Amino acid sequence: MTHTHTDTHADADTDADTAVTRAAIDVTTAGLPAWLDPVAQAARSVRPQQLSRFLPPESGAGRQSAVLILFGDGPRGPELLLMERSGTLRSHPGQPSFPGGSLDPEDGDQATTGPLRAALREAEEETGLDPRGVQLFGVLPRLYIPVSSFVVTPVLGWWRAPSPVGVVDPAETARVFTVPVADLTDPANRATAVHPSGHSGPAFLVESALVWGFTAGVIDRILHYAGWERPWDRARQVPLDWRA
Fold first, then answer.
1. pLDDT tens across 24-36, in order?
2. CA 235, CA 115: separation in Å to the nearest integer?
3. pLDDT for the residue numbered 16
4. DSSP assignment of 82-145
5. What is the DSSP letter of 168?
6. How far apart are CA 96 and CA 123, in angstroms?
């Protein structure tokens, strides 16, 4: 079992919102369902190079951000929470993604608990998720998205007490949905996405969506290192357009 704990006491006159932001943040595997054990174990040992060839600049440059990779137990078994970005956004319009975004100053230290708070805060802002029902159980190595200069910390969560979710701001989010892990591992739903620029990577055709790019890459690596991956046809290609 891994267990880390950071506790910052808010001053008595601090308002409720700030108190929540500065509350204790736990990352623990205690009480996780057994099916999540392989993911937790992989998170403890996986190296950045095993997740992506795009790693944060050694100079420290880049926009610090975090995403919440939230596993729940749905009607068809284990599932992941995803959202589809609004088609009007300048960055990655219409693309399915994990909830997440840039770190704010009130999130705290970007090297320790800042990404944890940012992942939960952004998920609440984008999907209406109640963060009190989420148990954080792992943190993956920081990765890099060159096209937007984001340095991303993937934060793993267990949806211990599910809450209603949906679109909070249509200007940012087109829809919020869950995907059964069984659909993500189904070879019939897998392909290689090919961008006109020449870049290619794993993709998933699930819930009337094409999941590709950073999100698909992280899901692909989680499935692989958790031992959930099933053989699939990597020669099956899905073309992307220039706007993607």
1. 688 999 999 999 9
2. 36
3. 37
4. EEEE-TT-SSSTT-EE-SEEEPPGGG--TTTTHHHHHHHHHHHHHH---GGGEEEEEEPPPEEE
5. S
6. 14
